[in-house]
Design goal:
Its main location: cytoplasm. This is Mth938-like domain-containing protein. It is found in: Cytoplasm. Helices cover about 25% and strands about 30% of the residues. The protein has about 120 residues and is of the alpha/beta class. It has a single domain, classed as Hypothetical Protein Mth938, Chain: A (3-Layer(aba) Sandwich), CATH 3.40.1230. It has a five-stranded mixed beta sheet, with helices on both faces. It starts with 6 loop residues before the first strand and ends with a strand.
């Protein structure tokens, strides 16, 4: 099983992830990750994280997914996203960003975990 990259640090507007250049928001999965560009799926704070945002995590083998809701919990999660993950039998954790990072890093040690991380509001 490919290991999910560790998140080395998180602060407002900046994340450092093992093996990747520093950035603001990230999509991470077993074996890799990349910056998360909200424009790709048309994501906005409401309704929030869309099915198109999480599909890449599923495609890369994530069986557990951590969704960060932002540092101030302003990022929602579209009900269709929860339904997609449920339909794939994925365990989902939703949390404020610093808590989401803690959960993700704990799980990354031994699980096929993916995550979406928003480092501001």
């Amino acid at each position: 099983m490919a290991k999910s990259p560790a998140i080395d640090s998180i602060s407002w507007g900046r994340m450092e992830v093992e093996g990747l250049a520093p950035g603001k928001d990230f999509k991470l999965w077993p074996g890799g990750g990349r910056p998360w560009d909200w424009r790709e799926a048309g994501t906005q704070h409401e309704p929030g994280i869309l099915p198109g945002d999480v599909q890449e995590l599923l495609d890369n083998g994530a069986t557990t997914v951590v969704l960060s809701r932002g540092m101030e919990l302003r990022l929602g999660v579209d009900p269709a996203t929860r339904e997609l993950l449920r339909a794939h039998g994925v365990t989902v954790h939703e949390a404020e960003t610093t808590e989401a990072v803690r959960i993700y890093n704990e799980l990354a040690v031994g699980e096929a975990v993916g995550g979406l991380f928003h480092s501001t509001c």
